[in-house]
Amino acid sequence: EIVLRQSPGTLSLSPGERATLSCRASQSLTTSSLAWYQQKPGQAPRLLIFGALSRATGIPDRFSGSGSGTDFTLTISSLESEDFAVYYCQQYGDSPYTFGQGTKLEI
Amino acid sequence: QVHLVQSGAGVRKPGASVQLSCKTSGYAFTSFAVSWVRQAPGQGLEWMGWISGYSSAYAKTAQKFQGRVRLTTDTSTNTAYLDLRSLTSDDTAVYYCVRCNDILSGNCFFDYWGQGALVSVSS
């Protein structure tokens, strides 16, 4: 089973700042099968990024994904108030499809 | 518009079973698959299993749930079902059905999510 470790656990920033979230896999994701999701309290997660760097439909371009192999990054270029949430990475290249433990982005 | 509407939430006793439904609309059911993901209170996300809308012969379940989970679909109503038996308190969670764009392997990200169904296991 591929284990995903996200860091930091909590990130405290202010609106307008840049956020950098990390996801490290225990094995190389050879097909860059990595996605990022945003979850707000009481809501279902929302797909942000797939294929490590492709934005999902309707996702603002301040969200970007990068990385390959075992190290992946989600960057939010300039935080808006609605971006404060929990973020999860997920690998979908090898069953079982696993998620990281999440990074809480707080004001 | 793509929608996944879930039902079947509620309280169950330990040892009981639960069936969750996921009625889909807005897309060709047989051209996609459905996965199930759960989230225990205050915890992260856990993938449970996947079933193709193309053919129920294409399905897989996380090893952790094998023997307790049954995944099925009804293509006449575009609905997917999750049956989970022998419930324990550890099964208390919100269960999500999610759309998956791979109908043959299950290797997919989740682009649309149901609203979630809370299952509480308590005596």
Largest sheet report of chain B: 7 strands, mixed
List segments of chain A where confidence is low: pLDDT < 50 over at least 5 consecutive residues. Answer: none
Would you list the SSEs of chain B in sequence order as H and E?
EEEEEEEEEEE
Helix/strand-derived category of chain B reads: mainly beta
Mean pLDDT of chain A: 96
How many strands in all of chain B? 11
Gap between N and C termini of chain A: 34 Å
Compute the number of helices of chain B: 0
The multimeric state of the shown protein is: heterodimer
Which overall shape of chain A is indicated by the principal axes computed on the Cα atoms? globular
How would you concisely characterize the structure shown here?
By secondary structure, chain A is mostly beta strands. Chain A is built from no helices and 9 strands.
Which key features would you list for this structure?
heterodimer; A: 107 residues; mainly beta; B: 123 residues; seven-stranded mixed beta sheet; four-stranded antiparallel beta sheet; 11 strands
Strand-helix topology:
The complex is a heterodimer of chains A (107) and B (123).
Chain A: E1 4-7, E2 10-12, E3 19-29, E4 34-39, E5 46-50, E6 54-55, E7 63-76, E8 86-91, E9 103-106
Parallel strand pairs in A: 2-9
Antiparallel strand pairs in A: 1-3, 3-7, 4-5, 4-8, 5-6, 8-9
Chain B: E1 3-7, E2 10-12, E3 18-25, E4 33-39, E5 45-52, E6 59-61, E7 69-74, E8 79-84, E9 93-100, E10 110-113, E11 117-121
Parallel strand pairs in B: 2-11
Antiparallel strand pairs in B: 1-3, 3-8, 4-5, 4-9, 5-6, 7-8, 9-10, 9-11
Could you describe the 3D structure shown?
The complex is a heterodimer of chains A (107) and B (123). Chain A has 107 residues and is mainly beta. Helix content of chain A is 0%, strand content 51%. Chain A has strands spanning 4-7, 10-12, 19-29, 34-39, 46-50, 54-55, 63-76, 86-91, 103-106. In chain A, a hairpin with a 3-residue loop joins β5 and β6. The mean pLDDT of chain A is 96. Chain B is built from no helices and eleven strands. In chain B, a hairpin with a 5-residue loop joins β4 and β5. Chain B is globular, with a radius of gyration of 13 Å. The interface between A and B is medium-sized, with 24 and 21 residues.
